[in-house]
Write a structure and sequence with these properties.
The structure is a single chain. This protein is about 45% helix and about 10% strand. It has helices at about 10-15, 35-45, 45-50, 55-65, 80-85, 105-110, 115-120, 120-135, 150-155, 165-175, 175-200, 215-235, 255-260, 275-280, 300-315, 335-350; strands at about 70-75, 90, 95-100, 140-145, 205-210, 235-240, 240, 245-250, 265-270, 285-290, 320. The strands form 3 sheets. It has a 7-stranded parallel sheet. Strands 2-3 form a two-stranded antiparallel ribbon. A two-stranded antiparallel ribbon has the order 6-7.
Length: about 350
């Protein structure tokens, strides 16, 4: 594998000195880019893109052609694991992901097997290998997965949900059954992320998108427990350097200490948590990634720049900060505004790394 020309993202994850604060964006390969929309049109649909390694590579690299980002993230979807379990993932226009066969009963859950990435998801590992080759050491590549709890919500609800009624009903009425499902998913996430690492992913992120929908005690038992299990099951060294793990629970600002205790290298923050306060709480244990409100990208470039400056100032001097949005970039954002954001991070962060 080629030498990394820009490793500031990996260094920042390990709280090592960097020249400027590294930056990438969740959903950086996505619908706000006209070139992405053209690729998706060619692929026919979203899963056509995900399932074709050449096209997944193409769209992964598109934002790097446009912007001086410090990392690439594999183009895929968090729902590849349940799809590989045979639940029939499809996408309704304007409604998001849906499953033909939701998981609702004990028999449904007993029928689920831990996935075999080589057999079930070869298009993902093939995409990782291809992207690594095409990046040629330009920046590191991030692999990712959904968290067990987040995957379970989609599998039980049959798609997106506002209140997670069915998932929470199972959690409270049949906790043993929910634990069985979450355990199968955790084992699947471990083998899936390890397969991505072996294929060339240089850092991995676990997206616990719906962890913040749980009560305090339910989060610990039904989400964090399984995040902890995954972190402990991952390959942590490859190609002579550490493979950092980022945990991101949207709405999880109250649980940072418990998340840091998993042994993850970094925690992602949404925009509801002050990054300076988070650093005071857990910055001696983990790096912090985030955490600008994505909707600020609808503002004028000078307002975007001011917000970047405020977040950098809140974090303060020294390493351990990876700049990102507090969630994914939204489809209607002007690509020029995304560029202004990335430039502002590199420009304004130099003073904090002198």
């Amino acid at each position: 594998m080629s030498q990394l020309k820009n490793d500031r993202f990996l260094r920042a994850l390990l709280r090592e000195p960097v020249d400027v604060t590294p930056v990438w964006m969740m959903r950086q390969a996505g619908r706000y880019l006209p070139e992405y929309r053209a690729s998706r049109e060619r692929a026919g649909n979203f899963m056509g893109l995900c399932g074709n390694p050449e096209m997944a590579c193409e769209v992964t690299l598109q934002p790097l052609e446009r912007y001086p980002l410090d990392a690439a993230i594999l183009f895929s979807d968090i729902l590849t694991i349940p799809d590989a379990m045979g639940l029939g993932l499809y996408f309704e226009v304007g409604e998001g992901p849906k499953f033909k066969k939701p998981v609702r009963t004990e028999a449904d859950i007993n029928a689920l097997q831990v996935i075999d990435p080589a057999q079930d998801l070869p298009y993902v590992t093939d995409a990782v290998k291809l992207i690594r080759r095409e990046l040629n050491g330009r920046v590191p590549l991030i692999g990712f997965s959904g968290s067990p709890w987040t995957l379970a919500t989609y599998m039980i609800e049959g798609g997106s949900s506002r209140d997670f009624r069915r998932a929470k009903q199972m959690l409270y009425n049949q906790p043993e059954l929910m634990h069985q499902l979450l355990n199968t998913l955790a084992e699947s996430v471990i083998v899936y992320l390890n397969a991505q690492i072996e294929a060339g992913a240089q850092a991995v992120q676990i997206f616990d998108t719906w962890g913040g929908a749980l009560s305090h005690s339910a989060y610990q038992e039904f989400s964090l427990n399984y995040l902890d299990k995954i972190v402990k099951g991952l390959i942590r060294e490859r190609e002579g350097r550490r493979v950092p793990v980022i945990l991101f629970t949207k709405g999880g600002g109250q649980w940072l200490e418990a998340m840091a205790d998993t042994g993850a290298d970094a925690l992602g923050l949404d925009w509801t948590t002050d990054i300076g306060a988070a650093r005071a709480r857990v910055g001696s244990q983990v790096a912090l990634q985030g955490n600008m409100d994505p909707t600020i990208l609808y503002a004028k470039p000078d307002r975007i720049r001011a917000e970047v400056g405020a977040i950098l100032q809140s974090y303060g001097s020294g390493p351990g900060h990876i700049f990102n949005l507090g969630h994914g970039i939204t489809p209607e954002v002007d690509p020029e505004h995304a560029g202004a954001f990335i430039r502002a991070v590199h420009d304004l962060s130099q003073q904090y790394h002198a």
